[in-house]
């Protein structure tokens, strides 16, 4: 292990052996200036405290590390579960959108026959009759609108614009033709 000069292995009696040649005495670590380390910053990389305190700190670090690993595994498991749920919801969302489009098309088309079925002749005749009646109503509305335009044109006099006159003339001519 790095950062240990061997004094923790020798125990407290190893510190008392000044100049033992093993490099761990208090005077040797303090250096010639007696300042306490390589620079003024202190004993960088050196452990302080009794072996019991060091063992407690090591146990705390080991417990913290194992707790961090446990939390990481729990997060990864939870993230995996969320990814699966997200994929399932995406598929369900696609299915619901497809179903919504289908229902919307059915609503627009009405309850009529599908594209592969042809309506019976009686239904086609009824539909044609309904369309003719609707065309007649629209033509009648068109005639009434043209009559109203004629009255408005007669009432407005010469100040009506040329463009409106030409358009109205075209509409009136179309109406007069059979």
TrEMBL record:
Spell out the Acidic residues composition-biased ranges: 161-178
Enumerate the residue ranges of region (Disordered).
1-55, 105-127, 153-178
Work out whether the entry's keyword set contains Phosphoprotein. Answer: no
> Any coiled-coil ranges, and where?
none
UniProt lists compositionally biased (Gly residues) regions at: 13-44
At the top level, the lineage of the source is: Eukaryota
Alphabetized, the UniProt keywords read:
Coiled coil
Which PANTHER family has this protein been placed in? COILED-COIL DOMAIN-CONTAINING PROTEIN 89, TUMOR SUPPRESSOR CANDIDATE GENE 1 PROTEIN
Q: What is this protein called?
A: TUSC1 protein
Taxonomic source organism:
Glareola pratincola (Collared pratincole)
Kindly list the organism's lineage.
Eukaryota, Metazoa, Chordata, Craniata, Vertebrata
